[in-house]
Design a protein that fits this description.
Layout: H1 4-17, H2 24-30, H3 36-50, E1 57-62, E2 65-70, H4 75-84, H5 93-105, E3 108-109, H6 110-117, H7 122-130, E4 134-139, E5 147-151, H8 153-159, H9 170-181, H10 188-194, H11 250-259
Antiparallel strand pairs: 1-2, 3-5, 4-5
């Protein structure tokens, strides 16, 4: 059983994180080992605590449940504050991809961004500049002196980073992808190394690298003893001559065919 202070703090936290009004029954089910009447008593103490003048919010009953809300006397000031807030930042997929290139390759020029993404990114970079997620960082000392771009302080605030060193590494991305997709995701190098080589070794005795024969299926060529197409065809049986005798050899058969040829009468 929880002590009184811990129970009140836990009830307060449950109501705070809930997007809608929370009923007494829902709070009681969330706190194991506590009786409904004790939870009700501590909930009533919370209502009385937040009604004091040193609190800008209070705990009210809404639609059969409990919910925090600001006090009426502060609404004018709160309305002005809410109007001054920036609208939520929304980025398209091309903007996110371009922002990722700048974040990991900064400082980087526009031609380098175009080369990495394979498309013209001038408009997207201009949008990121307007949203103050990207700022200029001078010019690169090459022909044409293109402008360099890097991420801004607003970028760190928006993504909750202390500095760019807290960006996840490529290895961490691979690990997250493995966890999300399961064991079906394999690194190409690992997949190639796990398959037995169809070639074996070259003349020098060293194993061929996976890139030696990329994406090819090796089919061994059969020897003459194994390949029926390369074997000598069996001779056809010889036809008997006019006397009914079968020649014993090809020579004899040719001679017979020559001798038996009758001259053709002239026209």
């Amino acid at each position: 059983m929880l002590n009184d202070e811990t129970l009140k703090a836990l009830i307060e936290a449950i109501i705070y994180v809930a997007p809608e009004a929370v009923t007494l029954e829902a709070i009681t089910r969330s706190i194991e080992g506590e009786e409904r009447e004790r939870v009700r008593a501590k909930l009533q103490e919370l209502v009385e605590d937040f009604e004091r003048a040193d609190h800008g919010i209070h705990l009210r009953q809404v639609a059969g449940g409990y919910k925090f809300s600001s006090k009426v006397e502060y609404h004018d000031t709160l309305r002005r504050f809410v109007k001054s807030l920036k609208p939520p930042l929304k980025l398209s997929k091309p903007a996110l991809e371009t922002l990722a290139v700048i974040a990991y390759r900064q400082p980087v020029t526009l031609p380098e961004i175009d080369q990495i993404r394979g498309v013209d990114c001038g408009g997207v970079v201009h949008t990121l500049l307007e949203k103050k997620l990207v700022v200029t960082a001078g010019r690169k000392n090459v022909v044409g002196r293109p402008i360099l771009y890097r991420t801004s302080r607003d970028f760190l605030v928006h993504f909750g980073l202390k500095d760019v060193s807290e960006l996840p590494s490529l290895r961490e991305f691979e690990e997250m992808a493995r966890q999300a997709l399961g064991s079906d995701l394999l690194v190409p190098q690992e997949a190639a190394g796990s398959q037995p080589s169809a070639v074996g070794q070259d003349a020098s005795g060293d194993s061929l690298s996976p890139t030696s024969v990329p994406n090819s299926t090796l089919v061994p060529i059969a020897d003459s003893d194994q390949n029926p197409a390369r074997e000598t065809a069996e001779p056809l049986p010889r036809a008997p001559d006019e006397t009914g005798r079968v020649p014993s050899s090809e020579v004899e058969a040719s001679e017979t065919s020559v001798h038996d040829t009758k001259p053709v009468s002239g026209c």
